[in-house]
Amino acid sequence: MRNEMMYRPIINEDILHYLRTEQKQLTGKLGELEELAHENGVPVIPHETVVFLQFLLKQKQPKNVLEIGTAIGFSASLMAESIGKEAKITTIDRFPVMIEKAKANFEKLGLQDQVTLLEGDAADLLRTLEGPYDFIFMDSAKSKYIAFLPECLRLLADNGVLMVDDIFQAGTVLKGIEEIPRKNRAIHRHLNEFLEEVTKSPELTSTLLPLGDGVALISKNN
Q1: Binding-site annotation, residues for S-adenosyl-L-methionine
Q2: 0.85 exceeded by the pTM?
Q3: Between 139 and which of 69, 110, 113, 152 could a Cys-Cys bridge form, CB atoms 3.0 to 4.6 Å apart?
Q4: How many Å is the Cα radius of gyration of the chain?
Q5: What pLDDT does residue 170 have?
């Protein structure tokens, strides 16, 4: 379960430690879930991204949220806690082990009625959704971001925000392809295609943030 990207900071390690330990910590069952994930090396969003996501959602107050990449259900649970019971969250995952863990966590946190978990490949399921979604959080296979982007933009409300996690490949995304291990080269190419599209497209407004392994915020120009 260990994700090497979680242990290769892209900013100064002292600052990273401060961001992860000195900002307000989660409490209750959600805090326990975050702590358990970190203890077991489960790849959930790091705490600096947790705090940012909480702040963003409390300002945005979306009513209809889509998540691509459920994992153990931590991010979906965090979003549910941040935006209140009147909002609905749809989350997608295709890995049976993760789906089982996520369902158990949603039940433990009392979120079964607020969070809908769709089981299957996002490439297939996204086409079946209608939206619009006020907020979309994509935290799935990085090599698929560029492929999922058109459907995410179709489903995104005109004033909505698409947030994409893990975009810097542990700080190596701008290196030459020859410097990247062969097993990671497909991810490297597709992430660069994704970054080129979201930063250069005249139809989009975006900002990139050095949180965790990098976060992109994207909106549509109306």
Answers
A1: 45, 75, 93, 121-122, 139
A2: yes
A3: 69
A4: 17
A5: 86
